[in-house]
Design goal:
263 residues, mainly alpha, Serine Threonine Protein Phosphatase 5, Tetratricopeptide repeat, 12 helices, 0% strand
Length: 263
Amino acid sequence: MPRPDHELPDTGLPDHELPDRDLVERIWRILQRWAVPVMMTLAYVFLAATSETNTTGKAWMGVGLVFVLLVWFMFRGLTETAALSRALSIGDVARLQALADHRLARTRRPAARARYLVARALAHQLRGEFTEALAALDEAQPPPELQPLAAAVRIGALVELGRPAADARDFAISTPRAPALGWLVEAELAWRDGDHATAAQQLARVIDDIRAGSATRAIAHIYAARLADARGEPQLAASHRAAAAQLAAPDATWLRGQGVAAE
């Protein structure tokens, strides 16, 4: 089976006709990262070798090459950061797992690993692998901007595993920059406590907030469906589950499987 890493472009050939998919993927990743720097270096070397200039002129060419390379690697870093941010927002499970696997295998610094561990935890949560999500978070020391998401994933996993709301509430934090995550956490805890009125109020705020991200809103729809089931409103529950499936990424099997209720 092809790995859902979105790294290899469409070749027009089925996987079994590729000579060695792993080898092709490694070559493609190398080309993505190093093709431009190598070509630019060769171009600058050729320019310096053929230009009629003195050592000072060639030194300035070298400075120009260094600047170009810095810009290129900065662009690559920003592209990867943007890809991770988008995958976290929409809950792209395949992309989250691919980025986490790729970067965690090459990164040792705790601060650098933390964001990819949070990405892995979210991917596990959206597949309904709640124990694995907690294990990934136990390794992470997330930066401030990812602490609200890490807390929401942890609390959501604890709730789904049937842990008491009081135990899960210990991990709740203030989320002024990500209010939808705070509302979702309060809704999950209220649902676990049997406070359906508070849960419904908070879930409505998440669902109506288009800035919340499709993954967060999909989770809110799952809990709203459970509340509708508890009130004996099957049509409303089905509507919420359909909305969750529509918002969910293809590999978010827990969301697309309509989120079996925790007892």
